[in-house]
Amino acid sequence: MLVFTFLLEMKIRVCVNNFFLLCLEWTLTWFFGCGVFLYMAWIWLMGRLKIRLRVRNTPPPCLLDESLGQHRFIKLQNIRLHYVESGCREGPLVLLLHGVPDFWYTWRKQLPELEAQYWVVAVDLRGCGDSDKPMLRTQYSVQVIADDITQLISALGRTKAHLVCMGVSGSVGWHLAYTRPHLLNKLVLIQAPHPFVIRQYAHSSLTLYIKAWYLLFVRLPIFPELSALFCGLSDILLRPLIKAKIFHEEDVEAYRYNFSWREDWTGSFNHLRQLDLSAVWEDERQPDVIATPTLLIMGDSDPLLPLDTAYRSAEYVERITIRAVRGGRSPHIEKSAQVNQVIGEYLREMPWRPLSPVSSSLMGKVMGAGLAAVSKTTDMVDTARQLPGGLVGIATATLSNTFKMAENKLGLDLVY
User: Fold this and answer.
1) Which tens digit of pLDDT belongs to each residue from 327-354?
2) Cα–Cα distance list, 24 to 19, 215, 224, 345 (Å)
């Protein structure tokens, strides 16, 4: 009877907490929506709102550049997807999944580099680019997108593929690694820490909600799409890259063409509307450890996700390589040469032999704890780089001391 009463109280507490958080999230959603509306009204009254409704029916030449690959369409069970392929069809298949809002063109720096050794396919996710655009937001869940990728691999005549995911599409990569690991040779994630870690970070501080307020704003119907269309959101999002001279005028025109209709924004926003940012409860079961060899690339100046989220993701992967590169949210564009080299070297490596369940769990804890500790030294990295030979010495000493402390704490004599 006491056990039953305790479980009932726990269930009631969880329900109350869930209801409270749901009310809070929707309150913030409408708050941000009202804020955007008032801001647009104010700049319109001040004459500073330039409504940009120019529809572009002709793609710019850069989207038709044959050096990037050939455009193809493929009919799956419930969707028609567009993709660009390059390389030899006899080579290993590499699938490139973009983030949102984005489309296949984000991989223009990777397609020419990988085609020499691989069959590279940069696909437009459903709702994006030239792929079909279902209107219901429920048709954009992680499970649905994972089904699309599963069918795509099969339709391309393959049973396995290397999967490279950027940003939001990383949740699809993690999902496939858990539910269908037989489909993946290797998993490469860019700006995509483990979803469980992101949920922990989101609710450990209001920082993510404040910086990524648009994740709540886009939950509103229609208004986010109209706001993006009227204000030229594609230009606003690309402004930092344009200022850094990473984007050229033809690249900007490609994005203006791709996002010139309201439906173009609806598909991308529906992906964001399906993100799981629910709270992590104390009694919630920890995720299992995946066995798929994984490479996680993170920009060291991402304003939303710190490097700490990448290092903590190591606890949930049996074999993981983490590479931090100089850059923000789009390191595959900002530092394309370095990212291409890292991806190429990783895909060419021989597969790791699997660890035993006990060893993999302990290794994950050591990596997660050790690398998280190392991440706290990132504030000193810039200073260390200015010292001749200082960065290598500091990094080596920090890693050595961290792993020794972790091994002693866990009582390990040897970690493989």
Assistant:
1) 778 899 999 999 999 999 999 986 654 4
2) 9, 14, 20, 45
